[in-house]
Amino acid sequence: MLRYTLHRLLGAIPTLLLVIVLAFLMVHAAPGGPFDAERALPPEVAANIEAAYHLDEPLAKQLGRYVSGLLRGDLGPSFRYRDYTVAELIGTGFPLSLKIGLLAILLALMVGISSGTVAALRQGSMLDRIVMSFAMTGISIPVFVVAPVLVLLLAVKLQWLPAGWSGAPGAAKYILPVITLALPQIAYIARLTRASMIDVLGRDFIRTARAQGLGTKTIIRVHALKPAMLPVLSYMGPAIAAILTGSVVVEEVFGIPGLGQFFVRGALNRDYTLVLGIVIFYATLIIALNLIVDILYGVIDPRVRNE
Amino acid sequence: MKKSGGILLFILVLAIVGPWLSPHEYQDTNFGEIFNAPSFAGMHFFGTDDLGRDLFVRTMLGIRITLLVAVVASVVSLLIGVTYGAVAGYVGGRVDAVMMRFVDTLYALPFIFFVILLMVAFERNFLLIFIAIGAINWLDMARIVRGQTLSLREREFVDAARLTGVSTARIIFRHIAPNLLGIVVVYVTLTIPQAILVESFLSFLGLGIQEPQTSLGSLVDGGVNQMEGAAWMLLIPAALLALILMCCNFLGDALRDFFDARKAP
Amino acid sequence: MSLLEVNDLTVRYGDSAVVDSVSFVVNRGESVGIVGESGSGKSQTALSILGLLPGNATVTGSIRFDGQELADKTDQQLDAIRAMSIGIVFQDPMQALNPYLRVGQQLRQILLQHELANGAEADEKVKKMLGRVGLPDPERQFHAFPHELSGGMRQRVMIASAIICEPDLLIADEPTTALDVTVQAQILDLLEELRDDTALLLITHDLGIVAGRCERLLVFDGGRLVESGATTSIFSSPENAHTEKLLAAALRTDRGEIRAAANGKTVLGVDNASVSYRDKSKERLVAVTDVSLSLREAETLAIVGESGSGKSSLVRGLLGLIPMRAGRVVYAGESLEGPVQFRSAAQRRDLQLIFQDPASALNPQMRVQTIVGEPLLVHEAAMSADARKESVASILNKVGLDESYLRRFPHQLSGGQAQRVAIARALILEPRILICDEAVAALDGSVREQVLELLNDVQRDTGLSIIFISHDLAVVRSVSHRVAVMYLGQLVEVAETASLFSRPRHPYTRALIDASPIPDPRVAPASAPLKGEVPSLLTPPTGCVFHPRCVFAQEDCSKKQPGLRRFGGSRVSCHRADELEL
Question: ipTM, 2 decimals?
Answer without folding.
Answer: 0.84
